[in-house]
Amino acid sequence: MKVHNIQSCHLGPEISPEQFISDHFFLYLLKGSMKAFDGRNTYTMNPGDAVIARKNHLVRYTKYRENDRFEKIIITLDEPFLRKFQERHPVDVPVFANDNSFLGIEATKFIQSFIYSLEPYYTGDLQIDETFADLKREELLLILLKANPQLASVFFNFSIPEKINLEEFMNRNFRFNISLDRFAYLTGRSLSSFKRDFQKRFGTTPYTWLKKKRLDEAHFQLSNQHLKPAQVYLEVGFEDLSHFSFAFKKQFGKTPTEVIESQHPGR
C-alpha cells in the first residue's frame, strides 16, 4: 500500500530537543533518509522503514532530504499512556536482553494500513485530532505487541536506570550535548552523587573533563581526519561554532583553521 501521499505528523507528547530519548516513540519514514548514532551503533532508515526509539538512550540524528523534503510519522508512547494501556490490556512482560537504541519494526500490511489510516484524523497543522489521538496510539500498540509480544518488556519497563560504570559510560558518550542532570540520571545517580563519583574517578569536575575531552577529540578529527571546523563542532558536543573556536584556541594556542593549515602547508 502506498503511503507517500501522507505528510509528516506527530502524535503524542513532544520529543525532547536534547540528544536524549525521554519517551519511547514509533517512527515511520516517508521521504528522505536518516542515520542515527548512539555511541556504539549506527542505524540507517529509508522510506518505508519503521523503528521503535527507546527511552533513556542517547542518540544523534542526521537527516537527508529527498527533493528538499523530509517526512515522517512520529508517535510518542509516553509512560502515562503506557500505564493506562497496561491497565486495560494486562500482558505478560517477558525478558528482553537487547539494549539497542532503535528496534526495527517490520512494515507489515497492518503497519502500512495503520499509517494510511491516520490521514483522515489530521487537523490543519498536521496533528492528529486530540479526540482520536489515544485511540490511534492504542491501535498502534496492539498491532506492535501482536506482531512481537517481547516488546512488552520494552514498553512496560518503568524502572529508572541502574548505577553503572561511570568511566566506561562517559568515555563512550562524552560527545552527546546533554545536561549533567541527564548524564547523572543515565548512570543511575543523583546529580550530587554523579559529581562526587566523577571527582573521585577522574580527579576533576564533569564540566572541565567534558570540555577537554571534546576539544581533544576535535583536534584529532581536524588534524588526522582532515575535517573542517563546521563539520566537527557539533559532532563533539558544542552548540556554537564561535564558542568552539574560542575554546579550541584557548586550549591549543591555535584556531581550528590554523591546525588544519599546519597539516597542509602551502594550500
UniProtKB/TrEMBL annotation:
Keyword DNA-binding in annotation: yes
One Gene Ontology MF term: sequence-specific DNA binding
Pfam families hit by this protein: ExsA_N, HTH_18
Keywords: DNA-binding, Transcription, Transcription regulation
InterPro entries per UniProt: AraC_XylS_family_regulators, ExsA-like_N, Homeodomain-like_sf, HTH-like, HTH_AraC
Residues covered by the HTH araC/xylS-type domain: 164-262
Protein name from the UniProt record: AraC family transcriptional regulator
Origin species: Larkinella punicea
